[in-house]
Amino acid sequence: MKKFAIENLSGVIASLQQKGKxxxxxxxxxxxxFREIADPGDATLDFYNTVMSPKHLFFPQTEDMIKYRxxxxxxxxxxxxxxxxxxxxxxxxxxxxxxxxxxxxxFEEGGIIDPYWVDKRKNTIVIGYAFDSVDxLDFYNTxxxxxxxxxxxxxxxxxxxxxxxARAFTGKGEALLDGLAGLENASAADEKAFEDAVKKGPxxxxxxxxxxxxxxxxxxxxxxxxxxKASMACLNCGVCTFVCPTCSCFDICDETLFRDGRRCRTxxxxxxxxxxxxxxxxxxxxxxxxxxxxxxxxxxxxxxxKFGVTSCVGCGRCSRYCPxxxxxFSVVEKAKEV
Amino acid sequence: xNQNPYIPIPVEVVxxxxxxxxxxxKTFRLKFLNKEDExxxxxxxxxxxxxxxxxxxxxxxxxxxSPTQPGYVEFTVQKAGLVTSALHxxxxxxxxxIRGPLGNSWPIDFxxxxxxxxxxxxxxxxxxxxxxxxxxxxxHRSQFGNITVIYGARNPGLLLYKEELKDWEARSDINTIIxxxxxxxxxxxxxxxxxxxxxxxxxxxxxxxxxICGPPIMIRFTLPVFFDLKFEKPNILTSLxxxxxxxxxxxxxxxxxxxxxCKDGPVFSFEELDRIPRDF
Lengths: 338, 280
What we know:
heterodimer; B: Elongation Factor Tu (Ef-tu), domain 3; Rossmann fold; 6-stranded antiparallel sheet
């Protein structure tokens, strides 16, 4: 196990940069974001959680797949090489770490491998970071994730006063930690402090939903008027799906300037009307409540029947950034009573 | 499969047939530019492909040819949106891309040994044609019982595959019933809506499977006919449509309940459809 004083953070980031691209929380005007670090001094660990989830590390908002040049017969085209190179994702909160594993299920499902996601996952070392406080909107305890949950992280960090303690949990985490300049070896007391911190994680209580029977219940109330009521205030702005660490719906589009263009994939949202609009004009989800229901059901029912897990980690972002204060926790809680 | 499933396979348009007198439905015959791609593209009737026109995008279209017709694949495309309009502007010799084969298929093993009633309406006859040609293939015909085809369109000019329909009508190993809602001066065949014709034809449900594709309004009135004839829901099959992008169950667009139409479908029995929400 290793440790470093929080004042030396920029030194640690600088030595991480020797190992690959480093993405860490950076303070911006309206909050914190995971950004690729150029100046090590930009990275910070003094944040609660980032505005956007770190999913864009593996699933960029827009990603080029093919470049083409239109000609007489059609087009010359070439796939954009998939080779992200080593990346280090520094300071991820436990629910976000869990979200990567939930997305792995989809992107590797049925033997159909999504090469873009899988390549970046494989090349990235995830350094998790324990919470030391609780936001009232979070509910990650629902999914058996606790504030200092190291599962899924290659390296996990806890903060002890002015010191950050870091322990490796996987082989690649260990290899990184061992060879890293700027770290001190942890003492036996530090080891104990780390274990105590992890043990105390479950003591930091978030809200907790009882998910027993929810997947079936949501199926049963598909046609209930509840959905019109619950979605009444929804503006269909889609911010919930953009900040969400487990929303993964995307569009594939061609963008051409004169003769040169790119085929890229880009985040999309089930909250938008044209998401399901067919060329014939038929659209199965024209109404706001239908799209709202799709979002909730996909996470809390359909994903459960497909993969056995809920596609939510309780990070609280969708509730925090919803302009009309729709809280997914309450939506599901109330659905149980319908 | 180690290949990147998002990269289209290059093909050449070798033949274009305008199917209908409104000129908005054409059949494209595509030939693979690389022999190994052709060998790798093994499909079963009922599957679809994503046709790709760079600069416009991709469109999911059912495969209209049968795997028993080697050397090419055919797609019958109605001009509707950006990509299909671009396809309609193509001339023979043009190069496009195709991803696939995608989706499940008509359950051939399940259909074997049974009497097959194929019911199609209008433009929704493309993967049914694939299935019929597959069953009629000389080495396959004996594996299926009686084959009945009931195919209707609004008027004679809108019937697809007119030459093939004539061939089928001339054959004794397939019962072909063609109908139009309203005939024209030259029409000597049957007039009547598909559901009514199904009722008159009254196929025997014994050891039979009905495969039904058509516009929603046709399906809505045809289904009760088959229920009255005592066809069981697991023995009535259809193919769903949904907006799609990736075609491999990732992008989330065609999600209905726990199914992705592109990957778990597009073929479903009505028993399966009863178990997913009416969200398509």
